[in-house]
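Subject: mismatched residue count in predicted assembly?

I count 455 residues in my input, but I want to confirm that the predicted structure covers every chain. Input:
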Amino acid sequence: RRPTKQLPPGSMGLPVIGQSLSLLKAMRANTGDEWFKDRIRKYGPISKLSLFGTPSIFLHGQAANKFSYTCDGNKLANNYQNQSAGSLRSIIELSGEDHKRIRAVLVSFLKPEVLKQYIGKLDEEIRHHLDTHWHGKQEVKVGPLMKTLTFNVICSLIFGIERGERRDILVGLFQELIAGVLAVPVNLPFTQFNRSLQASAKIKAIVMDLIREKRVAFEQQGASPHQDLITCLLSMRNEDNSSVLSDEEILDNAKIVMIAGHDTTSILLTFMVRLFANNPSVYEAVSQEQEEIARSKAAGELLTWDDLIKMKHTWRVASETLRMTPPVFCSFRRALTDIEYGGYIIPKGWQVVWALSMTHMDETIFPDPSKFDPKRFEQQVPAPPYSFVAFGGGQRICPGYEFAKIETLAMVHYLVTRFKWKLSCKDDSFSREPMPVFNQGLPIQITPKKSSGAL
Ligand code: HEM
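Triage response: the counts match. Full output below for your records.
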């Protein structure tokens, strides 16, 4: 059948504003799913709209996921217009060969064989975090604490930035930077956008210093190029021995990995803590698996890769949590040429938007989708490709999957073997900004377990 080459149905809304305000409002009220469902009811799985000043096509469904994840990067590129992050040269902005090259470096850092070497350091960071921020306290705010933990882990394991003042300053600056991602771009004193720009400038100064230090260590002191991600990026050479990446490009990639690598895992861990508080039977089942592993070890012995492999039930619980509440909610791409899809045309320059969680809640793929059921991930036959997309898919599938997995499992191990907890306040709601943020930070009351190795 010849494509009609028509634009899909849908209204473009008001000039410039389009549907942006109504989508942002729905995301903040955590009713984004409903917002997209309404569109699908009205216009079907392909529709046009206008978001953030850009004409856009919304796509829905497993076939649309597959199309967006596998479409040639020269036709459909990532579309991140993050002015506050100022990032134009990082992995998420690149496509084609440039993307492949940077991605290969990242993957070489984040593959299981390399991660195995980090387990001791990861274990040590988690214990230090719990000893500093959890033990001896009656109440803690889970949301901010998980961000601190996952940021420290990524600094230590990927960037070799050890504990100390520089790391503490960076953690605050990144939180400020991220808060500005969806802020209204008004650069006046006291606006969130302005704070975010200032944070970005300070991060730049710190990371540029770090790049200079790492360059001296690499060029003059013989440090291995594989010792951390920054050294690896600055050691990349063209055939004429010139640097492949400028310092600005190294900065941008470092920033993206720091953001992508900590914000997502911290949200998964926060959702899991809430889940355990609201569902004692889920907590008990995970706790049983983790206590068994704890019993097989001598007091104070570090977790090993083999211990993490045994935590199968805990990872199924994490996967089901991600199915129902994926941290990354929708993805944006940009058409670099006219593209025909589903009998319609996606014109060059238009944005392509699709919501990841829509297939997660599709009852033809995940029966009874609102029920929390980790057994779904036990099935012999896994969900069809491109339907569970918490980590994306295709050539841009999350390179941090294994890293996120070991970090989540190790943290859950220490949490459930050391503590019990309940929510301190009734409001455990969250909004999407665009990442989920708990409105009260998720405060919990904690009680140490008698059997806890730390007591
Ligand atoms: C629970 C934790 C995580 C979740 C749910 C998650 C989810 C995702 C998703 C959905 C994408 C694809 C976005 C798109 O297609 O538009 C992605 C990409 C990415 N993630 Fe993750 N992620 C997690 C943890 C991590 C970690 C720990 C790291 C690094 C250490 C990381 C680094 C990245 C990078 C660099 C990309 C861009 C890849 C590319 O464009 O080729 N992520 N992640």
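The first strand starts at residue 46 and ends at 51. Marking this ticket as 'not a bug'.
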